[in-house]
Design goal:
about 325 residues, alpha/beta, Rossmann fold, 2 domains, seven-stranded mixed sheet, 8 helices
Length: about 325
């Protein structure tokens, strides 16, 4: 592959391994940057190479801690002041997306706040993958490419060739994703009726659909504490499901998540590497598949001014 010097890939400390894989796919080395902090914790950023006139892509998931978001904003600002031709913020996991509406008094719409910060910092384009809610795309006043991981997970489960499969949406919010997966895998569909009285707490109320005597794939966009996921799996097992698999795009895995997964009836949890999983590699039940080729291909197409939506030709039109 011919190395093109007018494309630059930059990253902070959020997920350097994913950024390196993306750079390799594109045919580039990561641009040399210093991303560190002062003794009091304040973030320091410096780009150590010339990026003037470059088509620059900053790969940086914005999961906790908040320094990851700050690094992204500062890298955008530094790139703008260094006269990069175009700055694309590549955010495999768009953090702070769970507050996407004002559903109670005196709360912020943080997903919109972060979108405003990215614009103010100087980004020209945004790339994300499997946003927590599709309407967040409307929060950006910039060109926005929203990638879907379904093409990765569908291929993974096609190879497993699980018989008598039913895809389960763990709540109404994930129904569109679950329906797409069920269509692609020629499987049945069921929905868990869930109530969430407060953040990170859920209650299973009912199951819409039939899983008795069938193998199940629970499909969701993210797993955080795994309480909701494991509760759904327990309920599905109680009503007669056989083997239970789960596929979630973003593996936040905070708190007692891994412990809950180990104690649950879930045979295998498949997640992407949109979030750095170095600390979560101890469980044999968790398998990580890379999204680097999907993101890398999107970057190449943006650079070559080609269609990004053509990456999703294999997906149902309702998802694109």
């Amino acid at each position: 592959m011919i190395v093109r010097n007018d494309i630059k890939i930059v990253t902070g400390n959020s997920n350097r391994e994913l950024a390196a894989k993306i750079a390799t796919y594109v045919g580039q080395d990561l641009t040399d940057c210093t991303v560190t902090s002062f003794s009091d914790g304040e973030v320091f950023v410096q780009i150590n190479e010339n990026v003037r006139g470059a088509d620059l892509f900053i790969v940086q998931p914005t999961n906790a801690p908040a320094e990851n978001l700050m690094e992204l904003l500062m890298l955008i600002e530094a790139s703008r002041r260094a006269s990069a031709m175009r700055i694309t913020a590549v955010i495999p996991y768009y953090g702070y997306a769970r507050q996407d509406r004002k559903d109670r008094p005196r709360v912020p719409i943080t997903a919109k706040l972060v979108a405003n910060l990215l614009t103010t910092a100087g980004a020209d384009r945004i790339m994300t993958m499997d946003l927590h809610a599709s309407q967040i795309q409307g929060f950006f006043d910039l060109p926005h490419d929203h990638l879907y991981s379904s093409i990765l997970f569908n291929e993974y489960f096609r190879k497993l060739d699980i018989e008598n499969l039913v895809v389960v949406s763990p709540d109404v919010g994930s129904l569109k994703m679950a329906r797409s997966t069920a269509s692609a895998l020629h499987a049945g569909l069921a929905i868990v009726d869930k109530r969430r009285p407060k953040a990170n707490v859920s209650e299973v109320m009912n199951l819409i659909g039939d899983v008795n005597g069938k193998n199940v794939l629970i499909r969701d966009d993210m797993v955080d504490t795994a309480g909701s996921l494991c509760q759904a799996a327990d309920y599905i097992k109680e009503v007669g499901a056989q083997e239970i698999y789960a596929a979630t795009t973003h593996g936040v895995l905070s708190g007692k998540a891994i412990e809950r997964i180990e104690e649950s009836p879930i045979k295998k949890l498949v997640i992407s590497d949109s979030i750095d999983q170095c600390d979560h590699s101890t469980s044999d039940r968790i398998e990580v598949i890379t999204c680097s080729e999907l993101i890398g291909e999107a970057i190449k197409r943006i650079f070559d001014e080609q269609s990004v939506s053509s990456l999703f030709e294999k997906l149902p039109s309702s998802v694109v």
